[in-house]
Amino acid sequence: MKCPFCSHQETQVVETRVSEEGDFIRRRRQCGACDKRFTTYERPEVNFPAIVKKDGRRIEYERGKLLGSFNLALRKRPVSTTQIDSAIERIEEKLLNLGQREVLSSRIGELVMRELKKLDKIAYIRFASVYRSFEDIDDFRAMVDEVRK
């Protein structure tokens, strides 16, 4: 595997771990040229349903977009990458278990909100304020009141 730092072609696996659920393998690698370490993940390739956007466009599912949404909402919050990965895996499992060829983007948004609510209330409110397009402070106040219950 090519080193992401110096593009050297030879890297060595220094540690391998299987996830708790056995869904993926985490490998720590070290570059033979610059000695920097990086992590790779090995997952089985599966076909996720196409995502139907609000405007009717259909796009392929991308784990990176989901991770980006989580990272943005959880920015500067005390949530580990392991917790984020687990939340994304739960969402992906739900998408696969639906057995559908297409899923509305709004369904994924609701799944993200459900996971964020479990992980961190502040991140949940951050995401919801953008996802639900809060118009004024009353919308924000209603969401905060919901979280307090």
UniProtKB/TrEMBL annotation:
One of its GO terms (biological process) is negative regulation of DNA-templated transcription. Binds 1 zinc ion. InterPro entries: ATP-cone_dom (IPR005144), NrdR-like_N (IPR055173), RNR_NrdR-like (IPR003796). Residues 49-139 form the ATP-cone domain. Its cofactor is Zn(2+). The keyword Endoplasmic reticulum does not apply. Keywords: ATP-binding, DNA-binding, Metal-binding, Nucleotide-binding, Repressor, Transcription, Transcription regulation, Zinc, Zinc-finger. A zinc finger (unnamed) spans 3-34. GO terms for molecular function: ATP binding; DNA binding; zinc ion binding. Pfam families: ATP-cone, Zn_ribbon_NrdR. The keyword ATP-binding applies. It comes from the Bacteria. Negatively regulates transcription of bacterial ribonucleotide reductase nrd genes and operons by binding to NrdR-boxes. Belongs to the NrdR family. NCBIfam families: transcriptional regulator NrdR. PANTHER family: TRANSCRIPTIONAL REPRESSOR NRDR. This is Transcriptional repressor NrdR. It comes from Acidovorax soli. The gene is nrdR.
